[in-house]
């Protein structure tokens, strides 16, 4: 194991491992219920803005820019804690949502279950 890998996996220094496109996976989890609300991506700027403001910011791949969750709807995600996985290439944002997390108006983005070849609503 290289010293960089050892430091990343066992050390106490925050060394986020962005992918080749400069992104890291970020999972938003309701801090009270434990429900997974959404999965998005952060670049270094989104991570920095999230840490500075306490509000979840992401990199929108479709818009090609930084966006704050709830910037138009008001349904912001207040970040209470950031958990970092073992090799620092994924984050869990434990959040307090101010309304539905999904752009469809559903409480979270995981409102359907795959049953055979069909999707069934579960919310």
UniProtKB/TrEMBL annotation:
- Ligand binding (Mg(2+)): 85, 87, 89
Q: How are cofactors bound according to the entry's free-text note? A: Binds 1 Mg(2+) ion per subunit. Binds 1 zinc ion per subunit.
Kindly indicate whether the keyword Nucleotide-binding belongs to this entry.
no
Protein's GO biological process: L-histidine biosynthetic process
Q: Which InterPro entries match?
A: PRA-CH (IPR026660), PRib_AMP_CycHydrolase_dom (IPR002496), PRib_AMP_CycHydrolase_sf (IPR038019)
Necessary cofactors = Mg(2+); Zn(2+)
Q: Which reaction does it catalyse?
A: 1-(5-phospho-beta-D-ribosyl)-ATP + H2O = 1-(5-phospho-beta-D-ribosyl)-5'-AMP + diphosphate + H(+); 1-(5-phospho-beta-D-ribosyl)-5'-AMP + H2O = 1-(5-phospho-beta-D-ribosyl)-5-[(5-phospho-beta-D-ribosylamino)methylideneamino]imidazole-4-carboxamide
Does the keyword Hydrolase belong to this entry? yes
- What main location does UniProt list? cytoplasm
Domain of life of the organism in this record? Bacteria
Q: Which Gene3D superfamilies match?
A: Phosphoribosyl-AMP cyclohydrolase
Task: Report the EC code(s) recorded for this entry.
Answer: 3.5.4.19
How this chain assembles, per its entry, is: Homodimer.
What's the family? In the C-terminal section; belongs to the PRA-PH family.
Q: What is this protein called?
A: Phosphoribosyl-AMP cyclohydrolase
Its gene name is hisI
């Amino acid at each position: 194991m290289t010293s960089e890998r050892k430091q990343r996996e066992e050390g106490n220094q925050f060394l986020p491992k962005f992918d080749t496109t400069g992104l890291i996976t970020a999972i938003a989890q309701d801090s009270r219920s434990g429900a997974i609300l959404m999965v998005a991506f952060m670049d270094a700027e989104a991570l920095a803005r999230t840490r500075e403001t306490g509000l979840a910011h992401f990199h929108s791949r479709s818009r090609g820019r930084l966006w704050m969750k709830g910037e138009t709807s008001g349904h912001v995600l207040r970040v209470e804690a950031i958990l970092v996985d073992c090799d620092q290439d994924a984050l869990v944002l434990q959040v307090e949502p101010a309304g539905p997390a999904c752009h469809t108006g559903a409480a979270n983005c995981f409102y359907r279950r795959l049953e055979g070849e069909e999707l069934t609503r579960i919310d």
